[in-house]
Every structure is written in structure tokens, then in C-alpha cells.
Specification:
Layout (H helix, E strand, L loop, with lengths): L9 H10 L4 H12 L14 H10 L6 E7 L6 E6 L5 E9 L2 E5 L3 E2 L9 H4 L4 E2 L2 H15 L3 E6 L9 H11 L12 E5 L3 H10 L4 E5 L5 H7 L2 H4 L2 H15 L3 E7 L7 H11 L4 E7 L13 H13 L4 E3 L13 H14 L1
Parallel strand pairs: 4-7, 7-8, 8-9, 9-10, 10-11, 11-12
Antiparallel strand pairs: 1-2, 2-3, 3-4, 5-6
Helix pairs in contact: 1-2, 5-6, 7-10, 11-12
The structure holds S-adenosyl-L-homocysteine (SAH).
S-adenosyl-L-homocysteine binds next to strand 8 and strand 10.
């Protein structure tokens, strides 16, 4: 059976190679080629005999992604990639360039099941979960293409990371491993729409990453309208879990709040949000919603956003407005795949 080598730990690789009577030092070499030198093909592994390279290519395929499309923002150098996976599916990643280094936003699934009303990933439909190596490969490909180190990761691309829990945990293990790129767990954020039992499972692991919660509304009435997951795990239950998470990990939780004009941006919403977050180790990230052609939501005006921030801050809740990057290149995740699929459909007609 063919085994996806990019998702294996070094120990697993050593065992797999042993079963094929390939010596241990070869496993270490291959692991380094994959995770240090970011090789995407056995032919790059020049210190391996040609015959071994052929054998490995047959037994252990490298499911790395290929750049299908790349767009660079003229406004802020944000780079958006559309990657093609080994089976022809597409995912998106975005690299944001900050003074302190490069951050990549990676996808965890092809499409998404969560059904949030404002999100393009949902519109494209759910296809499948990504393998750990396919999540890694987005970063590896981008870093190789840019020729610059990527030091921060946000799991905020397409898909719900906690709906692909085991593969995402393996991805975290591999990307923070000393014999790989060794990215600090503190430089990683994981964003979820609020899958409560999985947040509890994450808590058990006591990781030093930043947990982001896509809250977007302070009441069940409103949140259930725009985020179906809320019907399963309502606001108060989610926030109780968050309180426990923050208290037990001493890690500040980041709440994402997309400002939808006339929907969730009233003074009343701000006051209710402030009262619900009171006393929690947290931060609110306000994001003027990115307009998605197929959805009716419009971003709140800058004045409205500022007023919302003021109310939160007056109540002692830390809040910032996220800078909008890459607005000229469909940098809101899901948008490119949607376009690509539509183009494909048109081509098929
Ligand atoms: N499924 C995860 C991570 C992917 S989405 C989650 O829900 O957190 C990453 C973030 O972008 C989430 O906060 C999501 O709610 C937000 N988002 C989705 N569509 C958006 C849009 N059109 N404008 C602004 N933010 C959006």
C-alpha cells in the first residue's frame, strides 16, 4: 500500500523503511530533505542512490501541493496561492508580510461543512479533510516560492481545523518538531467556529498556541442565524468553555468578530458582548467583513466599527480592528477556490 510520507513522524518513517529493509540513516536523510530542505520530489534528494529514489517514489508518494495560481497584492505585498493537491482538489493559502516576519494562513479542509452565512468556503461546498502533510505542504511550497522564512502560522484558511482534529494535531507536531522547521507553538493560532467538545480535547493537550474563536455575535438569536454551529453549541456554553480554557492554559483567547453592517454592529451588541466577556483573559479582533459576491453582507462603516471598539474598551475589554490586507486579490479564504470551481464548471459546460 502506498503511504503518504509527508505526514509521518521520523519514528514512523524509520519503522516503515525498516519494513522495506532500508537502513535507518536513509530515513533520517529523507526526513531532512522533506522537512528541512522542503523537497517535493525524490529527484531533489541528490545524496540518495537513483535506485532507492525510484523505489521510494513508488512506495511512498509525496503529496505536496503545486501552485495553480499566485496573486500578489499591489497594495501591501500580500500573496495568495491557489494550490492544487495530488488528486486535483484546490485549497488556498495567504502569506501576509509584516515588519516582524511572514505569516501564512493555511487551509485545513477542502471546503467546509460549518455553513457560516458570510463565508466563501462554505459556498464552495465540503469535499474532504486535508492530510497533515497537505497542510504542511502549503507552508513548504510558499516558503520555497518566496525564498523567505515563514515564521508564523494561522489556521484560518478554508475549513474547520477542529473538524479535522487528528490531522491538525499531527500537523502541529511536525511543524514544531526540532528536526523540521521548528516553528514555535507560540507563533501558531488555531481558529474555530466553536466546536465545544474539540476545544475541550485541545485543552487537554496544553499547547502553547493561540486559540481564536469566531464569535461574530453575542446572542443565540443572532449567532444561530449566521452560524449554524451555534444551534449545537450555544454562546453561553461556548464562552464557559473558553473561560475554562483561558484560565487553565493562561493563554489569552482571541475572539474574531466580523462586523456586518446592520446585523451585529449595534451599540447593544457591543454592550452585550462586553458583559459576556467580562473578566476573561481575552482580546477581541474586529474585522470589517470581506464582501463575498454571493452573500448579502456589507462591512460596517469605519465610524460604526470605532464606536463598537469604544464601547468594548470602556467596559475594559481589549479590542483592535484588524487591518485589511490583500483586498485586491480575493484574499478572503474560499474566494479563489470558488472562482476556480466556477471557471471549471463553465469550462465543462
Ligand atoms: N473554521 C474556522 C477557521 C476558518 S475561517 C473558523 O471558523 O474560525 C477564518 C476566519 O475568517 C473566521 O473567523 C471566519 O469567521 C472569518 N471569515 C469568514 N468569512 C469571512 C468574511 N467574508 N469576512 C470576514 N471574515 C470572514
Amino acid at each position: 500500500m502506498n503511504r503518504d510520507i509527508l505526514s509521518m513522524t521520523l519514528d514512523e518513517l524509520i519503522n516503515e523503511f525498516a519494513e522495506c529493509s532500508i537502513p535507518k540513516f536513509r530515513a533520517k536523510q529523507v526526513y531532512e530533505w522533506l522537512h528541512r530542505h522542503l523537497a517535493s520530489d525524490y529527484d531533489e534528494m541528490t545524496n540518495l542512490p537513483k535506485q532507492l529514489r525510484n523505489e521510494l517514489a513508488e512506495k511512498f508518494p509525496i503529496y505536496s501541493c503545486k501552485i495553480a495560481k499566485k496573486q500578489v497584492s499591489k497594495l501591501d505585498n500580500t500573496v495568495k496561492y491557489l494550490f492544487e493537491l495530488h488528486d486535483g482538489d484546490f485549497v488556498e493559502s495567504v502569506v501576509m508580510k509584516y515588519k516582524y516576519g511572514n505569516t501564512i494562513c493555511v487551509s485545513s479542509q477542502v471546503g467546509c461543512k460549518m455553513g457560516c452565512a458570510f463565508c466563501a468556503s462554505t459556498l464552495g461546498g465540503f469535499k474532504r479533510c486535508l492530510l497533515p502533510g497537505e497542510i504542511l505542504s502549503q507552508l513548504y511550497c510558499a516558503q520555497k516560492d518566496l525564498g523567505e522564512r515563514i515564521s508564523r502560522i494561522v489556521l484560518m484558511g478554508m475549513g474547520e481545523p477542529l473538524d479535522n482534529f487528528d490531522n491538525v494535531m499531527r500537523f502541529l507536531e511536525l511543524i514544531t518538531a526540532e528536526n523540521g522547521l521548528n516553528i514555535s507553538m507560540r507563533n501558531i493560532s488555531l481558529s474555530t467556529c466553536g466546536v465545544v467538545p474539540k476545544i475541550n480535547e485541545l485543552l487537554e493537550r496544553r499547547l502553547q498556541l493561540t486559540l481564536s474563536i469566531s464569535l461574530h455575535a453575542p446572542s443565540d438569536e443572532l449567532r444561530s442565524k449566521i452560524m449554524p454551529i451555534n444551534k449545537k453549541y450555544p454562546v453561553d456554553e461556548l464562552l464557559k468553555t473558553c473561560r475554562r480554557y483561558a484560565a487553565e492554559t493562561s493563554r489569552r483567547i482571541s475572539f474574531e468578530y466580523a462586523m456586518l453592517s446592520g446585523v451585529n454592529d449595534s451599540d447593544e451588541c457591543a454592550r452585550l458582548l462586553a458583559s459576556k466577556l467580562k473578566g476573561m483573559l481575552c482580546h477581541v479582533n474586529l474585522i470589517p467583513v470581506n464582501e463575498v459576491a454571493e452573500s448579502p453582507f456589507k462591512p460596517s462603516s469605519p465610524d460604526r466599527v470605532q464606536r463598537f471598539v469604544d464601547i468594548l474598551e470602556k467596559s475594559g475589554i481589549n479590542a483592535t480592528v484588524r487591518r485589511k490586507l490583500g483586498s485586491d486579490i480575493d484574499a478572503s479564504c474560499g474566494q479563489l477556490r470558488l472562482k476556480e470551481n466556477k471557471a471549471k464548471e463553465k469550462g465543462d459546460e
